[in-house]
Amino acid sequence: MAEEKVMNKQVLFKDYVTGFPKEEDMVLTSSTIDLKLPQGSTAVLVKNLYLSCDPYMRPRMSRPLTQSYTDALVPGKVLVGYGVSKVVDSGHPDFKAGELVWGITGWEEYSLITMPQQLNKIKYTDVPLSYYTGILGMPGLTAYVGFYDICSPKKGETVYVSAASGAVGQLVGQFAKLAGCYVVGSAGSQEKIDLLKNKFGFDDAFNYKEEQDLTAALKRCFPTGIDIYFENVGGAMLDAVLLNMREQGRIAVCGMISQYNINPKDPVHNLFCLISKRILMQGFIEPDHKHKYPQFHEQVIQYIREGKVTYVEDVAEGLENAPSALIGLFSGKNIGKQVVLLAHE
Amino acid sequence: MAEEKVMNKQVLFKDYVTGFPKEEDMVLTSSTIDLKLPQGSTAVLVKNLYLSCDPYMRPRMSRPLTQSYTDALVPGKVLVGYGVSKVVDSGHPDFKAGELVWGITGWEEYSLITMPQQLNKIKYTDVPLSYYTGILGMPGLTAYVGFYDICSPKKGETVYVSAASGAVGQLVGQFAKLAGCYVVGSAGSQEKIDLLKNKFGFDDAFNYKEEQDLTAALKRCFPTGIDIYFENVGGAMLDAVLLNMREQGRIAVCGMISQYNINPKDPVHNLFCLISKRILMQGFIEPDHKHKYPQFHEQVIQYIREGKVTYVEDVAEGLENAPSALIGLFSGKNIGKQVVLLAHE
């Protein structure tokens, strides 16, 4: 049987992380891989084009006893995450060589996917392929389900989005504007604030790092209170939001990036507001809602084509720069959705 | 016009309270009242038979800036709360002398009700009248809405109730058993634990005051986790519950009695569990659900008549003992629903 062995650069997960992840927690290495599947294999071999850097990856790096919404990563093994790939060889009837796919893959040049149900075919190719790590992928569906299904927005309601220029936040803000809501976002730099106001059409935005008093900042932005909060950060921000929520408010609990690298977690003191204001808080994750991808894609591709939503990405180039790109999420280095380009189609 | 002036003993609310309420925060006094309404009045004059002591009254005693789900009490004025009364005179077409009513009244022997929409006629009289302060009143509807509507129980699910022998908790536990759930309650004394297991049919119960580690106690009682938590206490208990919740769990946030008398409030650290376990938390209060009283009464009166639910009250006698009865709620002195008997029908 003909072998086609090539070098395969990889990023390994070194060991469980405590505190902020560092580049040294990931190891760049290389092995060889056969680009021809053995006879009888039902796996799919892919060439990775884009890798996605997402905040949820941090909880997966903690020792499993820490609650995490996905299985923990395995020390010594290649890092895994969402990506866009091209099929090189396939033993699975659903996929064939040359097809473009997105889904869970490895942080490496080539990946052998033994559970092809984690791959999805790419249907729309008139948008950048990298969008399948963002607006058309997990962050997109997260924004869609969290905003429309959990927050049940009504025209004229007030919406607050934290981490608003990130992969999910920028979409939530635009969905909220399309729904006729008043939308304010927060982020951690002037550049991001400008992006929110000028590119994504938020009605207002503030730099949380420059506010002495988050409760007062929210009171200033929402004099009559917040109907909907899209929670991406947790901790002190959540506490300030609770004091500023309106009665019958809804909080979609999507992420708590401010809390992933610290232990003990920041205290939240104002949960009594849940009763006094009859607030709903609902945690959710994308894997529970995968069946909504078809309707979501149909809706969002339309928005993109009509120019009703836009999407900003921060693209790092090369696998060797993937670890620092991932780590950058936790200091807010990225402007927009962080993605890593490995290879053009 | 004939006057029928009588003495009217009253409990006044002295001034806003910080920390635990004391008897001295309430003043026993008396005034005179005319038992005949003046010509043309549209008010209703009632003789109070039972007064209800409920935890929600504590937030009403704080200076209004503190979030409270009802209006604050007015210093110097008579205390108000739920009660059962008999109409003495009425200028309102919906009520006539001799009728029994329940609703918001004053902590006094006779009350002049100027907003008769706060009164409800008593329909079923084959149960103790005091039940309209409890199982057939605000706590009853609270248990009913919180458990059935917010927690959406399914047969075989696990249910945890804190403050389980209280007015609301004892009903939630019994509703949960009727729904085919496995139910564990916690309370603060052996006598209450016995009540939960032997009278209300809880599958298990524990004394939270005797547990070193609430997280471990819940793990022991729920080895596979909690599907439904009926939240009455807040603080450290909520934190321990979050770690023990199962995926897709529901938390009906009814009260946080452990937090009403302290400032700052106890920290909650484990809200990330909302995401990892996709938990719903929903705050609620009875006034939003008053339209459900007819269906609720029909259901619960049936349960009472068939002996399917039971109700335990702690009855203090005399208006002069009302302040200490109310305060006793916050140290758990009451066994079952705390009510004050002022007069027999």
From TrEMBL, chains A, B:
SMART domains: PKS_ER. Residues 44-340 form the Enoyl reductase (ER) domain. It comes from the Eukaryota. Keywords: Oxidoreductase. The keyword Oxidoreductase applies. This is LOW QUALITY PROTEIN: 2-alkenal reductase (NADP(+)-dependent)-like. Pfam families: ADH_N_2 (PF16884), ADH_zinc_N (PF00107). Homodimer. CDD domains: double_bond_reductase_like. The keyword Cell membrane does not apply. Coiled coil: none annotated. It comes from Dioscorea cayennensis subsp. rotundata (White Guinea yam). InterPro entries: ADH-like_C, ADH_N_2, ER, GroES-like_sf, MDR_fam, NAD(P)-bd_dom_sf. Gene3D superfamilies: Medium-chain alcohol dehydrogenases, catalytic domain, NAD(P)-binding Rossmann-like Domain. GO terms for molecular function: oxidoreductase activity, acting on the CH-CH group of donors, NAD or NADP as acceptor.
